[in-house]
Structures are given as C-alpha cells and as structure tokens.
C-alpha cells in the first residue's frame, strides 16, 4: 500500500490517500503530491511540505519548551560529569567529581583555603577524587582546583544559555515546530582539558 499527501494549491486543503501502486489522479498544476513512507496518524503528526518530512503536530512554542527541557537535561549531564584537571599537581591528573554535593564541598574548601592564605596560616586538604585516589593539596592548589571546576561550570551554563537564546530567537522569527526540534542542544559546550590548560570556550 502506498500513501500520498495531496494539497490543493488554491485552498491549501490537504487529504491523505492510498493506493496499491502509482497514484497521480491530480493535475500537477493544481495539486502538490508527496509520497509517504507510511500512513500518518493525523491526530499526532503531519506532513511538512517545506522540510519534506513527517513531523509531530506541535506549536513552535511547544517545540521550544520540549527542546529546552531536553537542553537542561544535557546541561546537567555535562555539569555533573567527572572533570579531569591537570596543572594542580605537577605531572598528575585529578579527576574531580562535579555533582552538586561535590561542587559545594569544593567551594567550601576554596573558602577555607582563601581565608588561610589571607591570614598567612598553613592549610592542607586531603582531596579524594573520582577514582578514589587521595591527593594532599595546599591552599593554592585547592584554590586552583576550585577555579578549574568553576570555570568549566560557567562555560557549561553559558552554552546552555546560548541554546536557550537560539530557541527563543527561532520562535520569534517564525520557525516551524519541526525546525525548532532540529536545533542542536549540544552546541557550544567546552571539552574537558586534556593537558595542563583550564577548559576554554570552543572555537566559533
């Protein structure tokens, strides 16, 4: 069985038709024809003539909201993933846990290290990383660790806001729901450092 979407060019009226073989009973000057891969569930989906594809029946606003929810899930996955950090300890890599609890613990340690430095007092912290290895860090090293984690978190947040702006702009400029659902929610995120450099923004 072959399914066709037929659109009246004068009125825009559409109808779904089927046949056992080739099907072209309409004058090509009056109607648009699209051969489909399968029957459509017209209550849930439609044929997008511009994209030449089957798309869900959703308003641009609904598509924007769905895409933003997916973008937030991806953002949290990136923010919470363990982060390799080099340069804090010479010749060693610290894999820092970056879930919320771990970030709060690191932030607290940075505050204590900063106070110790300001008071010119000794400070030492035994830091357990993602691989359950322990590293003895002084105040400066704790602060450097915290800066690396905070920098990566900030870049992830900035990337997610760029995605949000792209979604809002698409709605404002009249993009279709199908076009909005194709917006890349992974764009702009930094890669974890592989050498002694802190994470940086991706090249544009």
Task: Explain this structure.
This protein has 204 residues and is of the alpha+beta class. Helices cover 39% and strands 22% of the residues. It has helices at residues 60-80, 100-118, 139-172, 177-181; strands at 2-8, 14-19, 31-36, 45-48, 53-56, 83-86, 93-96, 124-128, 134-138. Strands 2-1-3 form a three-stranded antiparallel β-sheet, with no helix packed on it. Strand 6 (83-86) and strand 7 form a beta hairpin. The protein is rod-shaped and about 85 Å long. The protein starts with a strand and ends in a 23-residue tail after the last helix.
Summarize the entry for a quick read:
By secondary structure, this protein is an alpha+beta fold. 39% of the residues lie in helices and 22% in strands.
Features:
204 residues; alpha+beta; three-stranded antiparallel β-sheet; two-stranded antiparallel sheet
How would you spell out the order of helices and strands? EEEEEHEEHEEHH
Sheet of most strands: 3 strands, antiparallel
Report the β-strand fraction as a percent range. Answer: 15-25%
**Strand order across the biggest sheet?**
2-1-3
The total of beta strands comes to: 9
Cα end-to-end separation: 48 Å
